[in-house]
Specification:
The structure is a single chain. The chain is α+β, with helices and mostly antiparallel strands. It has 2 domains: 102 residues, Ubiquitin-like (UB roll) (Roll), CATH 3.10.20; 150 residues, Orthogonal Bundle (Fumarate Reductase Iron-sulfur Protein, Chain B, domain 2). 34% of the residues lie in helices and 14% in strands. The strands form 2 sheets. It has a 5-stranded mixed beta sheet. A hairpin with a 6-residue loop joins strand 1 and strand 2. Helix 8 crosses helix 11. The radius of gyration is 26 Å and the shape is elongated.
């Protein structure tokens, strides 16, 4: 086969074949940004106003970056991916917990855009809060504990699992740990139940209730976390307002698919009259 003829074409020639390149100027406008500033959890905070020039399609995080670049580089905020996948830029925008990188300015109502730190966790500086309590909670949850394989599973070298069982727990793995659900949860926010995760009396919050659910529903997990749900995790404190589901940027059905099934497991074991009779007859105790 003969070699294909060599094609030598310049960028200018290619451009001329497609017609002139037209660069359209993006629409720019001024927005009124009102940001809560402060240092430390107990320090006084103030609202500071900025007039920022933004372009069409910009998000609130763009406006915050514009303030840092042109007006006040000391403004603190946490961010990483700017793509709605790292969960770092959580804030309250006009009073609603949202990701700054996923909130388009043009979709907000007219008037000042009020940006505040999430209120459930102590402030470190400006829009940055200390969310380390959440990681202590995660450490208190027993990790994935594989069950003993059957003879058939050992022969194949893998667990037998139905797809429906896999899908049930897989939904919760979409969580990006933005902690917006933790912020909007009134049990943590208003009732102060973000306590020592190793002791009774607190509440782990929506994020870690579905973390437990993802493990409890896993078809290959053998651990029993129902006692943890009842005591340290305090699942009984949740009264199913579904605020957490509404603010989840990953659209996880936190309440219906995670929290309610966990509450049902606790109720079945500790409060079902029939189960109480069976345990009494068989002389077995509940953990």
């Amino acid at each position: 086969m003969a070699d294909a003829p060599k094609v030598d074409i310049t960028v200018q020639q290619l451009t001329s074949q497609k017609g002139p390149v037209v660069i359209q100027a993006s629409k720019k406008s001024l927005v009124h940004l009102r940001v809560r500033r402060g240092l430390g959890p107990e320090g006084a905070s103030t609202m500071e106003d900025f007039q920022v020039e933004v372009e069409e399609g910009n998000v609130v995080l763009d406006a915050i970056h514009k303030v840092q670049a042109t007006e006040d580089p000391s403004l603190a905020c946490r961010w990483n991916c700017k793509a709605g996948k790292c969960g770092s830029c959580s804030a309250e925008i006009n009073g609603v917990p949202r990701l700054m990188c996923m909130t388009r300015i043009e979709e907000l109502p007219e008037g000042p855009i009020v940006v505040e730190p999430v209120k459930t966790f102590p402030r470190k500086k400006d829009l940055v809060t200390d969310v380390s309590w959440n990681y202590r909670v995660n450490e208190a949850i027993q990790p994935f504990t594989p069950r003993e394989m059957t003879a058939e599973e050992k022969a194949k070298g893998e667990f037998n699992m139905k797809q429906v069982d896999v899908d049930r727990s897989q939904e919760f793995r979409k969580c990006i740990e933005c902690f917006l659900c933790q912020d909007v949860c009134h049990v943590l926010r208003d009732q102060g139940k973000a306590l020592d995760p190793t002791k009774d009396g607190g509440f782990y919050g929506p994020r870690f209730t579905i973390r437990i659910a993802s493990l409890e529903m896993h078809p290959a997990d053998a651990a029993d976390r129902v006692p943890l749900l009842r005591r340290e995790a305090g699942v009984g404190y949740c009264n199913i307002t579904k605020c957490c589901t509404e603010v989840c940027p990953e659209h996880i059905h936190i309440t219906d698919n995670g929290i309610i099934p966990m509450k049902e497991r606790v109720a079945d074991r500790y409060f079902d009259p029939l189960q109480l009779v069976i345990r009494k007859v068989t002389n077995t105790s509940r953990k």
